[in-house]
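User: I'm curious whether this sequence folds into something compact or stays loose and floppy. Could you predict its structure so I can see for myself?
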Amino acid sequence: MFDIEEELKKLPAKPGVYLMHDSTDTIIYVGKAISLKNRVRQYFQPSRNVSPKIESMISHIDYFEYIVTDSEMEALVLECNLIKEHSPKYNTMLKDDKSYPYIRATIREPFPRLLFAHQKKNNGDKYFGPYTSAGALKETLEFLRKTFWLRSCKKVISGHNIEGRPCLYHHIGQCKAPCQGYITREEYMVNFNNAMNVLNGNTGEVISRLKKDMEEASENLEFEQAAVYRDKINTIKRIAEKQKASFDASEDRDIIAMAADGDEAVVQVFFIRAGKMIGREHHYLTGVEDELEQEVISTFIKQYYADSPFVPRELFVPCEIEDEDVISDWLSERRGQKVRIVSPKIGEKSKLVELARKNAELVLTQDAERIKKEIKRTVGAVHELSELIGLDGLSRIESYDISNTSGFESVGSMVVYEDGKPKKHDYRKFRIRTVTGPDDYASMREVLTRRFEHGLRDIRESSMQTAREQNPDVPNSSDQNAVSSNMNAGFAHMPDLLLMDGGKGQVNIAIEVLADMNLDIPVCGMVKDDNHRTRGLYYNNKEIPINKNSEAFRLITRIQDETHRFAIEYHKSLRSKEQVRSILDDIEGIGPVRRRALMKYFKSIEAIREASVDELEKVDGMNSRSAKGVYDFFHE
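Assistant: Here's the prediction. I'll summarize afterward.
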């Protein structure tokens, strides 16, 4: 169990980000702190004075974790990225992208502009950011516009038509008035590209030119002008500074570092996606006492990325590893592109590896016991289940459920667990299309059929796409765009085990569907006692008893509860959209408008049932035919 009082004592007095989890392992709140020790402890003090929302959040905290950073600014950036990645329930005020704005370069325009943007959109323009401060962004925009004489107006400039008169910015020397033809497009683009170079961090040439101008002004005794150039140089240098929590947005990287103590070690992995740190994982290792750091890191990379569905373009590691070329080639083959393994020695990249190492040390010294318990309840539970039913290599488990109300709005749910943990990005919902009434077996057959048809199609398309990348002569399929939009939807990764909530009946349905598709996937069902509680597993036509005190039983119970919850929530959402199903829905020719008019006029179904044709015709929108249809429906 996670002892909150004990864990509070271990908190470091350092800046960082903390993550609050509920009993289902869901992240419900992400916050940043100048001092983790002081900030997190405040939530659990009896004298706390917080809002009702935060009080509700505190009541749901089961455990917390944290990531140490080198500065509050890094904590702020990391907090933003984690909130966007996990969408915690109690971080509603921080979800809006407007809190983290961008600079938008309108590169599609003949005379492009640099603008303030609340959100990053896929519209063909180029974006820089996100910026943690709107004030800093506006200062940067103002500086770039003044320095490089960029326009900020909304005028449509074709290069031929001169519109109106020059604006105030031209008269005060901040715009070259391209709207008047005072500057050619070629000259304007030189200035614009200089501004883009500053935003991209390629500031050397720009700074060199400004230094030359500053020296010339100083030699001419124009000291005020020289000071202006000096301030511009300092501002450009400040703009070009990069935070360790943000990188080139075109790259995906994993940052790997470790800490060891005797026979045990923790490897910390930071995930950089599209230039932002979005999260981390730590992995507990044993049997490392006589191994060097490079040996442990090499072993970890091979084991971790052998099963990982995603391989980044770069791995940052703390030291040069054994068989680096071989491992790099292997990862490149798995990714389909060149993968680099880098051991940075200086600069920001080296500092981020050091940051990962510091977090690994904290995990090792403060969270070792909790990690062992976590491994026992997740990976350990999966191992127990594997031994119980005699399956090797068990990792991904998919569970399904059907939910309906008397057959109305039947839905199916697909829940995925990997290594004993929920993988919520792969959860899927199914609205039953082909089954009428409360037929759970037929509904389950439809859900499983659709799930594996999707999976097989995505696998085929993925193979074709890989073939096209390796051989450009392979023709594109006519529906490539339509299919590609469904890629990475979670279906292409086939499960190691199907876990059915029902017993023999549902297991047989699943086996039939898999057989029809020539898929060899084990199927396991849950056997219930007279009180509808799981007492064992049904596998390979026999019942296998299970110890109710085992981690495997607890894992199955968590999966079962999560599958029910997911299905019921989806069903409730559909019911709320449909509102209340009325018997009037079944009358031909009576649509939503007439249904509302009938209920408004008669107030109840019983009054409609007792009404004559003449009385029904008095309702707005009803004619003799529709009125007779309603009357006949109730009296035939």
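Summary: The domain at 383-578 is CATH 3.30.420.340 (Nucleotidyltransferase; domain 5). The CA atoms of residues 373 and 379 lie 10 Å apart.
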